[in-house]
Protein 1
Amino acid sequence: MDTVQAKILDGKKAASVIKEGLKARISKLPEGGRPGLAVVLVGEDPASKVYVGQKEKASVEVGINSFVHKLPAGTTQPELLALIEDLNCDPRVHGILVQLPLPEGFDADAVISAIHPEKDVDGFHAVNVGRLWTGGRAVEPCTPKGIMALLDSTGIELKGLNAVVIGRSNIVGKPISAMLLSRHCTLTICHSRTKDLPSAVRGGDIVVAAVGRPNFVTGDMIKQGAIVIDVGINRVGGKLAGDVEFESASQKASWITPVPGGVGPMTIVMLMKNTLELAGIKQTPGT
Ligand code: GUN
């Protein structure tokens, strides 16, 4: 078959359109009726600091009240749990996010479990995970929610397509699998122990790469015409690289996300959208 250049799934552009919609919606609310997002950062992890800064900036831009709590690395687990309890009870706060990974010594599962499921803006609480898999009213994790929005923006019917997810993390691999399954995709989940991963990936009409290894997925693994979603954010010699080798994969794919400017911007805007949804402020379709 002829090689064609894939169309770009421009997450930066899509996120900015959604963001404008959210901003317009919030601007119509009374000052006291604005949604509030609390972000908790423990310790000094440089990447986490950058991500928290991006979340604070995006909140302010759309008009969400931002409450950032920066705690020293020496904070104890009971101190962190006490803060979460305060935020659970604070009526100004509709979404709570504890930035992961937590420093060594913290029990991340216990911390996530302490967040009230109705304020769990990440959708990481077991109640929301359970609801996602059973088809209930779940808070959908932000990165998978952004991926679904990008897939829908292609206008392609997802029902019955073979979807291959590479990676089985709680943040991306597992929840995107649940969401693709709920949209009637036939699902394959690959991971580090998968035998003959390239041949599994070659069966994918949709490929979601979330492995955290630069240029792991190469063009020879991509079925002609597949939609390729690259969730990877890897630093290689000061430059960002995805999990997909863009040059070769874009010769085979029909649609492909770039890194940067693909999934990343969608994650942040979906955090804003989740905060509004938890505040009970409904969105008009498409925003
Ligand atoms: N660390 C990396 N991604 C995420 C995320 O989506 N949410 C939280 N809380 N921490 C993260």
Note: The domain at 30-118 is CATH 3.40.50.10860 (Rossmann fold).
Protein 2
Amino acid sequence: MTMPTNDAAADSRGMLLDGKALAGRLEAGLAAEVETFADLCQRRPRLVVVLVGDVAASASYVKSKQAAAARVGIDSELIRVDESVQTAELVDLIRRIAAEEHGAADGILVQLPLPSHVDERAVLDAVPPDRDVDGFHPENAGLLSQGRPRFVPCTAAGVQRLLIDAGIPTAGKHAVIVGRSDIVGKPLSLLLAGRGTGGDATVTLAHSRTADLARVTRSADILVAAVGQPGLITAEMVKPGAAVVDVGINRITDPGTGKGRLVGDVDFEAVRPVAGWISPVPGGVGPLTVAMLLANTLWAAEIRLGHRRGT
Ligand code: GUN
């Protein structure tokens, strides 16, 4: 990112981490790479998305993933499955997708959360690791933990990208991540603590049992909120000048208008005057999650091409 252009200097508000703009630039680069792939292979990278049940938020995330795929020239297919599906049936479906009964799938994504009666782990483990564009398979999690990442979970990768692009230093800085999920908190802790650009930070992974959370967050140069709790991070919890990245996406009813709207985990209006940088919701991390998914899908297709060449 070129330095964010806003009025930060004039009124000392934190600079906006504009994920939407960065995602747009990343998409433009990906679209060109996808064209090269398509010319070379006479086919497009292809993503298969499995969506279970009728959760409106999940359907809306999947819609934006497919729309973004279309924008960069990646083919996608949505397979909808009834809420009542059993674990074994879902595992079998993923095996059939992997066996190409639905055509070649470079990337396979199972939208989470799954209904509570489904064994999520068993389903995610069934996705072949070389098509696991979400980076949720234990093989990909293990590679990341060993500092040789292949597919990195998209939101974690997006947060690191946002920091790098804004020129926010991470080396030697204290990064506090609130939330220890397998999807965001854990992989992000490994990325920020890893060696190299966007890494070399000292990382604290805070969670619901952390004692005196405010004391911990106040010591953060980089504070990432990834819990799913509106208003969790207040101004008093933020060190002046810190970079605050908000991963939360929560739908609330606005008391003023009575209408639904999206908010993050950070009290944006209160925290912005304290922070050095802050990501908005929507328009912060969300678009980058999608851009990272597209990058992973193209990469998965290229890996498969490499396999074909090698055999
Ligand atoms: N649900 C919320 N975030 C994600 C994600 O990154 N991938 C998938 N598959 N499901 C999600």
Note: The chain has a mean pLDDT of 94.
Protein 3
Amino acid sequence: MKLISYVFPIYNEEGNIDLLYTTMSGLVEQLDYRCEFIFVNDGSRDGSLAKLTGLAQRDPRVRVVDFARNFGHQIAVTAGIDVAVGDAVIIMDSDLQDPPEVSLELIREWEQGWDVVYAQRRSRRDTVFKRLTAAAFYRILNSLSEIEIPKDTGDFRLIDAKVAHQLRQYREHDRFLRGMVAEIGFKQKPVLFDRHERHAGETGYPLKKMLRFAADGIMGFSSKPLQLISRVGWGMAALALLGIVYAIVRKLVFPEEVVSGWTFTIIAILFVGGVQTLMIGIIGSYVGRIYTQVKARPLYGVQATYGVPARTVAPTGYEDNAADTVRPAVPGDIT
Ligand code: UDP
Ligand code: MG
């Protein structure tokens, strides 16, 4: 029987874990598959961990990876994929915004031979602000990046074991998983769904994190912002030339007139200063990301695991130079 690994990142989801677990258990009973539920506790500050360890004690299908601190959603999902041994891995939010029953549809499409089945929002119940910014973001992203990243698509998706295997080799720090999966390729297919509202608790993605994430998406998949700098440079050089010609001609035609230059000078200085600082900022963002990457620190730290066979996860995270990166299933591992 094939094994499906569900990956749930958990950050302060105390109020959702029980419902999520009961819904999922009920759902997978209809399936002719074995399942494992991988919960990655991303440094929750509430009672999430206690709930999860309780589940792990009762149910051998439950695996819990407990991070040493909060590493962020994308890293939590990464750790879940690192641990997963299924023939397919399904990534889902834990707040029931991604309807569990849609995962069955993902599995159906996978059985039809698709390697990546991503859930695309037909509708979203978000604030007007979030909808507008998301639309703008995907427009910018797709106009900049070399690969096609599907719009209205989060991380809710099914990936085949071979895609998961490939994804495990991507150890970049500032992660944008949906972009990586798009880049990996294979046979990809969307499934439309209606996204629900968060069941309980509040979002772990405040505006600041969202902006950072958007920047990761753009900078992780495009170097066009860097090319933009030279374009702006050309534009400014052209403006400078105009200014020079103007100043010289004026000096030649009215040699005795003192140019009342203060306004013009101050505008020029502020304009050049502003644009330059902005451009250095773009370079700085790339340099910062290079710096993080070059340090080559582990992506995450695990302080404890529950129900996870010991070989799968090293204390400092996944060992990507291991000869065989996918842990073979241990007999009697999963009921
Ligand atoms: N999450 C996480 N670490 C974080 C923030 C969020 O693991 O630092 C998890 C969270 O528990 C949820 C998923 O990522 O399962 C999506 O987060 P959330 O629902 O808060 O984001 P939103 O749906 O509001 O964009
Ligand atoms: Mg959510």
Note: The pocket of magnesium ion (ligand 2) is lined by residues 93, 95, 97, 198, 203 (CB under 6 Å).
Protein 4
Amino acid sequence: MGNPGGKMDPLTPTLSSPGARIRSADGFRAAKAAGAKIVMVTAYDAWSARLLADTPVDCLLVGDSAMMVVHGEKDTLGATPEIMALHTRAVSRGSGDLFVVADMPFLSARRGESHALDCAAALLRAGAHAVKIEGARGHLHVIRHLVESGIPVMGHLGLTPQWVRELGGFKVQARAPEEAAMLKEDAAALEDAGAFAVVLECIPQALAREVSLSLSVPTIGIGAGPGCDGQVLVLQDLLGLNPGFRPRFSRRFADGTALFRDGAQSFATAVREGSFPLETEGF
Ligand code: KIV
């Protein structure tokens, strides 16, 4: 794949993006300083990464949401370093010069610096340019250690799905003033530990705006309103490929389900009526 981490301008103009494509962790800071909104999309496989590489998105997230979206599980807890590395390798085979962030899976930042370093190394060797770690309290030293070891880390606060058992479900977080105060402290601590960006998931819009204004690194929101420095959505949700799932914070930018059904329907009809394949479609 390309070398987004190479020694070049962190924001480099490309053909597919009339503005600038993010090439490194520093590029995220530069985008914020330039007032450019950051666009992140999840990807779990090579073919969608290949399609996305030819669009003006800034970066791909190999999210542990793969466990729900791809593997059909009810939460993300089943993700392992091996599963995340497999998805990351697939994505990196298709992602061209896009910046790729891979999720550190459930508990991987809670078993000490050495375990986290091994897991992050596996993800970087599989092609990621950075890792994302949920939460902050209790493992800030791990985040600092990874950053000092040359591994760019993206933080993730608010609704952190790896804590779903403790949170009691996928719910909006930090509504209470004391929780909001803790989140602000955590965001500042993540920046201090060296995180190059922070995902804010499902928190009140006013809080997300306040945190975004308080940090020099960008925030990337999902269910956190327009005050964030960028936005991330799950690819299948924004393409309308997840018909049973309509969270308030997401938007369908295409009717992928109709496209999918129409394609499969047309294929089935053509096979049954004998119009596919034609002789010109054989050898
Ligand atoms: O796993 C994931 O897809 C994520 C995003 C929703 C931010 O963490």
Note: The pocket of 3-methyl-2-oxobutanoic acid is lined by residues 42, 61, 63-65, 103, 199, 201, 222, 232, 234 (CB under 6 Å).
